[in-house]
Fold:
Amino acid sequence: MSHVGSDVGVRGSKKQEETGVPGEKTPAEAWLADHLPSRIRPFVESEIRSRDIRDSVEDPGRALCAAFLVGLASRVDKVHLLQFDLKSRDLIQVVKKLGIENVEFHRGSGLSDEWIQSSLNIDTDLVKYLKGTGCLHGNQTVAIVIDSISNHILHRPTPYTCQTIHSLANKKNFDCDVKQVVCLLHGDLHDNQQLSLLEHTSTSVVRLTSPVSSHHNFSCSTLHKKATGKVIRITEEFTISEHFTVSNIQEVKKSTPKLSVMDEDNSVDPTANLTFNLSLTDKEKEARSNVVLPYTKQQEIDSQGNSPGEGKIFYQPDEADDFDEEDPDDDLDI
Amino acid sequence: MSGTSFQKKTRAKVIQIQGTKPSLYNNQLLISTGVPSLDNALGGGLAVGTVFLVEEDTYGNYSRLLLKYYCAEAAMTGHALMLTSADNDPEQMMKELPAAILDDPGDTKAGGDQSAPQSDPMKIAWRYQNLPKVQGSPSTVKFGHYYDLTKVMPTEIIGGSDVTLISADDFQEKLVCCESDHMNGRYWTLLQKIREKIEAGNFSTTKQIDKRNILRIAIHSLGSPQWGENAGYTDKGDIDHSLPRFLYALRALLRAAFGVCMITIPTHLFENKAFIHRIHKLCDTVVQLESFAGSEKEKNPVFAEYHGLFNIVQLPRLNSLLSHIPETYDLAFKLRRKKFMIEKLHLPPELSDSASRPQEDPIANMKAKQTGCMTDSKSSKLDF
Structure:
């Protein structure tokens, strides 16, 4: 598999914009259909309410999405997979191949109500739909995976989709405990404003990028907002193996530490290699501290009597100072 | 001694309401924001009848905290409170209010300061020995409280005050009936609720009642996607005037009421600069929080002491041509468990030259690189 693109953001490009339906298979996607996913657990799960995986044509995120799906299936009682992309079918194959039983599929259409009559399409109110199917009940722990929400954003104002994700992740809306909502989003189909609104809504954003080193197949930069207010930004490279495990996770360090090393090399010690002496030995320092300097006397006076902040005025009147109570301006020549 | 026409000027009668004080500058009635150092930076507090806008930091953590302090202050002073949030559950926010510290932390701090300098006499800069320590905020607090973030406010204190909570669910129900042509339905609903509250609680200035109280309105993350705000644009891509209209109407309501409104808006979501300026102008006091969390500045040694920058964008000019002018506009905030402090931004005493500092950072560049008798050439280390 070869990654040609250098970065995610080839936004607004490609044929997909016109139809709103993700188009033909890229070579990378075809590869992924065969070699699917695994698990990734970068953070403590209980804190995470909703999560965006953002991919692009060059760096497809469906494999990672499937990795989340498999990972979630092992941790919660039931995973609901809502499919709106044509390529979502691959996820069904993965689940079947691995023999995972607690995933429920909701096959939807990426088209709007006007074009297709289907119980689940992009005009469906997802909260109502999930309630209506009656599959969210009891004291189950549930996770919701949406593949993908790009069509929703293309067809409707972005805030509507943000509200949908927000209410899906809201515990009050369902009887059961929704642990996590994972959404796949094709980042190159949307403009910055739409992306920033979604980023604002979700608690963590995983953005797929092209890996730098050849040892890894995937690379992602993760932004995670903890409930405590701490924000984690990390770029990692990893491999998704045939047994659907994320392995070989390695953090990609930025090049800034290198720069500071260079700085240290440049900063020279000015006292080295001089023709005269600028440094003091301990003995010399002691001798210096014993020298009586002009202000030392003043310092002693200060330390003896007065408490800090107080002062005294010593004044001895001479003959000219005939101070008259009645007329204080006596000495002025008016 | 008679026959003079001189009459001693009597001050206009200031209404006595709990938790308020008259301003030293223009005799406006002020209330505390719940953060004494913030009151100090704004010239004493928030004037009654005004709108206070906090531009949220990127992840909204510190702005939410400020809002909590403001709400906690309402509970402590007995003011009526109206809390609205579409993103968070207001009930949950009320449960998380920090508890007030009733024994004044200012006293213990002052005591510590006096003993500190004696332990370490200055040898060379001895003239500076007895200078008072720099204090970001007044040490004695009679107005406003400090809050302890590790403790939650006891429910009996909250239960005693008049609290109205409006969550996103309240908007959903009414959305159909009052979707208005000129304003987003959620804003419209909120505006109606505020109007009803002012009427029902006798907060209007036209009403004559014996015991006045203040209505504190807190609106969390107004203009976030949860309010249906599409970053200042309509679905068709035109500029959406809902938010400015809402703010305009809100200010008009408050001018005739004993109420103060604190709003946090995630302005970083709006790309249109003119739209943000319009929002500024429609509020009275505007401050901006710039958190270091998740940004490069977090690791910058210049800002090691602080959690973020505090920018005063606009101060109100109330009944005068001039606003309060703070000592400095270079302010930063830091968060301790028992104190949220806004202070003058001080640079650390010395930065080693080897510390990595990115070039684009303006403050880091303020420090002159190499001056004096040194030249830039690396071969000679000291060049006279």
Q: What stands out?
A: Residues 105-118, 356-378 of chain B have pLDDT under 50 and may be disordered. The two ends of chain B are 78 Å apart (CA to CA).
